Each structure stands twice: as C-alpha cells, then as structure tokens.
Amino acid sequence: MGIKSLVMLDNEQMKNMKVEKKFGHTFKRIYTYLFIVIALLLATTIVTFIGLNSMTNNYYQQNTYQGLLRIHNQNFGKSAWMAVATKDAATRQEEIEEFDVTMIENLKDDVANLKKYRGETPLVKALDQDVQNLDRLGSELVQMFSEGKELADGQLDNFDELYAKMHEEVRPAVADAVQNARQMTVNVTTEMTRMSLIIRIIFFVMIGLSVVFLFLLIVFMRNAQKQLTHSVVTPVNEVAKVAEMMSKGQLDVNVNYDAQDELGTLARDMEKSTLVSKRIVDDISLSLDSIASGDFTVGAANPELYLGNYSPIRDAMDTITNRLSNTMNDVREATDRVSQGASNMSEGSNELAEGATDQAAAVEELTASVATVTEHTEQLASTSQKGVEMSMNAQQEATKGAEKMDQVTEAMSRITASSKEIAEVASSIEEIASQTKLLALNASIEAARAGESGRGFAVVAEEIGELAMQSNEAVQRTHELVDTALSEIDKGNAIVKETQGVLMQVTEAVNNLAEMMREAGSMANEQAQSMREINGGIEQISGVIQNNSATAQESSAVSNELTEQSHSLHDLVSQFKVR
Q1: Strand partners, 150
Q2: Which CATH number does the domain 293-574 belong to among 1.10.150.530, 1.10.287.950, 1.20.1050.10, 3.40.50.150?
Q3: Which terminus of the chain has a smaller tally of CB atoms within 10 A, N or C?
C-alpha cells in the first residue's frame, strides 16, 4: 500500500479536485521526485568531488612531502659520507654546506608541510624529532670537520672519528628517519584506500537511490498520465454525448458524471440547462396551443420557469393574452349592448307602425302617441350614440392588439438574431478548437524533437489534439442545433403571422360593426328630427303618420338586420375564452 501511494494518485481525491488543482497536485509530486533525484545526483557529485579533492590536495601532497623527506634524508647521508670520504677540500666544503644547510632546511620544510596536512600526529612528531636529531648531528659533524687538519694526501687527520660518527650515529639516524617516512607512506596509502572505498560506496549508494527515485518518477508519471487523462476525458465524453443528444433535438438528457471539479459543474449545469429549456419549450407549446384554440384566460402556464433572459417571453405571452382577453370582453359587451339596442329599436318600430295604423281611426290619440314615439326615438338615438362610442373603443383595442402582435413578431426576430449570434459564438469556438489542434500538432513535433524525454508530452499532445477534434465535432453539432432552432423559430413566426391575420379579421369585423353603429345612430337622429317636426305642426299629422309608418317599417327591417348581425358577432366572439 505504501509503494502504491508513492507511484499512484488517489482517484477519489483527484475526482473531486478542480482541474487546475489536479494538474498542480500531479506536477507537485513530479517536481518532488525530480528534486529528490537532482539532490541525490548533486550530493553524489559533491561527495565525489570532496573525496577526489581530498585525495588530490591532501593525500597526494602528503605522499609528495613524505617522498621528498625520504629523498632529502638520503641526500643528507649521501652528502655527509661524501664530505668524509673526499680528499678535495673544495668538494668537502660543498658537501658540508649541502647536508648542513640545504638538506636540513629542506627536511624542516618537509616536516612543516606534513604538519600542515597531517597535523601533530605521533608519526609527524617522530619525523620532526628525526630532523632535529639530524640537524644536531650535522652541526657536530661540521664542528669535527672544522677541528680536523688536512694531511698531505688531502685526508683529514680525524678521519677515523668522522667515520665512526657517521657509522654509529648519522647512519642510524638517517635510517630511522627513512623508516618513519616509509611508515608515513603506508599510513597515507591506507587512508587513501579507505577514503577511495568510502567514496565508491557513497557514490554507488547515491546512484542506486537516484535510479530508484527516477524509476518511481517514471512509474508515477505514467500512472499520473492515465489518471489525468481519465479524469478529463470521461467528463468530456459525457458532455459530448449530451451535446450530441441536444443536436438531435433531445432535451431529456442525463449526465453520468458526478464530481466536484469544473467539468462536473459544467455537466450538471448542462443537464440543468437542458431540463429548464425542455420545461420552457413544453410550457410555450401548451400556452400557444391554448391561444390557438381561442383560450385567452392564461399566458404562460408555469411562469416560475421563465428566469433570467427567458422572462421577456413570459411577459410577452401574458401581454398578448391580457390584451386579447380585454379586447374580446369589450367586443362582447359592445355586442350585447348593440343587440339590446336593436331589440329596443325593433320593438319601437313595431309600436310606431301600430300607432300609425291606430291614428287613422283616432286622431285624438295622436298627441299622446307622438309624445311616446318621440321619447322612444330620443332614447334610441342616445343608445345608438353610446353604441358608436363603444364600437370606436373596440376598434382602438383591436388596433392595439394588432400592434402587440407586431411587437411579438419583432421579439421573434430578436430571438432569431440571438440564435445567429449563438451560431457565430459556435464558429468562434470552432476556430479556437482548430487553433488548439494546431497547438497540439506543434507540441507533438516539439515532443518528437525532445526524443525519449518528450514521449509523455507527445501522448498528452495527441490527447489534446483528439479533444480539439471532438470539440470541433461538438461545435458542428451545435451549428446543426442552432439551425434547427432557427427553423422552429421560423415556424413560430408563421404561427404569429397567422394569429396576426386572425386579429386583422377581428379588427375588420369590429370596423364593420362600428360602421353599422354609426349608420344606426344616424338613422336614430333622423327619426328624432322627424318626431320633432311632428311636434311642430299638428296640421301635418296625416302626412307625418304616413311617413312614420314607412319609417317604422324601414327601422323594423334595419333593427332586425342589426339584431341578426349582433347575434352573429356574439357567436363569433363567444368562441374565445377570456378572463
């Protein structure tokens, strides 16, 4: 379980991460492993460099100075022996200066340098003591040389003493110094061997750890690639499936992806959006069916669905139904009043005709009858005038309804323009997808140039290219969906035009009714004028009675016709359900 957690990511944890955090978390692990590998390699390099530097600048120098110490020891002895053995005074003096000055100074310098690299170790102290001993013996030899006298053959008279000094004291002292120097060589060689072994062990351990972490890094990167691909491709496929269903006109969709990242949010929002769109489309269809069947009692059946940019559609539908309902109510009331007025006119005309017939038998009743007829005629004129005013109002309301239908047509045109803008946005997305595909191709080329190290990025670039192709296909399907929506909007425009035609017919009928009411009013005014003329002269009663009889018959015919027209208009208006 521990190794698995090192080379794999937690699927549940990755699923609920934001996309940016997914990549950040993954690359943080990659950077950690890479940092460890680089740190190990750097530590290996530093340790190796320190070891080699120590061997080069420490042990090498120690070997150099202990070698020089041995050479100078041997040269000290050699020069001392030459000074004792030579019979030439000049040569003797040169050899004395060689071992007493030059070699002693060199030996002291060698010991001082060894102390700098080795410190005050027992062996260094022994070598220092050997040099001091040789310095003392050299001084004693110089004293003996100075005390000796040169014989005829060039030999010194104290040759035997010098020889004994060399053989018994100087030679063993030189041998001891050489032996200590050899021991120094053995010690330095042993330390160099041990240091070399330690460096090799550290080097191989560091290299082994680097290889292990590099292997873990490679395995982790392969697993991370698969997990990242799965966490991104799965929701994209779900969204693509939903987009394909929407492109086919299916709004009842279900997204099978549940996560807390941006893609999960996008999937849920798309599912919710399609559900809201489906409900709104169903509600619009139901409302338009009601309007088409003549039911103006309701606008939007479920107004709570129209949120945000959908609210103007709800308001327009409510306005249409309200205006149509009010207009139809006014027309119905006007029709009822016209029918009632026509009935009254018919009754008055009948009474007038009967009165005219009765006046032929009884002239004495003429005054009362004329007064009654005059009163009825004035009432009829007043009623006709009101009918004319109500017809004018109905005409104005019908005109307003037609204007509202024009506004609906303009709203549908704006919806069409918005759909076209959506198509343009989809074209922009298609262009972005093409650019993404081109970038993926460039990334693949750069990864191919990188060789083995860019293989993983080549795979990612290929996946991005495929995703860009899928996005392009989704955009094409979006174009098809927008075209379908435009087609449905055109159908809606046709329905609105048909509704507008019906309203134009209603307006024309109301205009006809208004014209008839004007004619009725004119006729009622003429009748009132006639009755006033009857009141002006009793002497014209006979002629007026005849005129009244004819006028009554005409009024009866007109009122009967007006009654029939009002009944027909009432039947037409009754087909609509209003509030």
Answers
A1: 156
A2: 1.10.287.950
A3: N
Identify residue 413 by its one-letter amino acid code: S
Closest CA to 81 of 191, 140, 162: 162
pLDDT in tens, 195-252: 888 888 998 998 999 898 888 888 878 887 777 777 677 777 777 777 777 677 676 7
Contact 225, 456 (CB under 8 A): yes
What are the structure tokens assigned to 221, written together?
């990167």
Bridge partners of residue 156, in order along the sequence: 150
- The tens digit of pLDDT for each residue in 47-92 reads 777 767 766 667 778 888 888 998 999 999 999 999 998 988 899 9
Domain ranges in the chain are 36-217, 293-574
Q: Which of 33-47, 53-67, 549-563 has the highest mean pLDDT?
A: 33-47
pTM: 0.36
Element (H, E) at 155: none
What whole-number distance in Å separates Cα of residue 387 and Cα of residue 391?
6
| The CATH number of domain 36-217, selected from 1.20.120, 3.10.50, 3.90.700, 1.10.10 | 1.20.120
- pLDDT higher for 75 or 440? 75
Q: How far is CA 511 from CA 143, 508, 555, 567, 570, in A?
A: 159, 5, 22, 16, 15
For residue 1, list its beta bridge partners. none
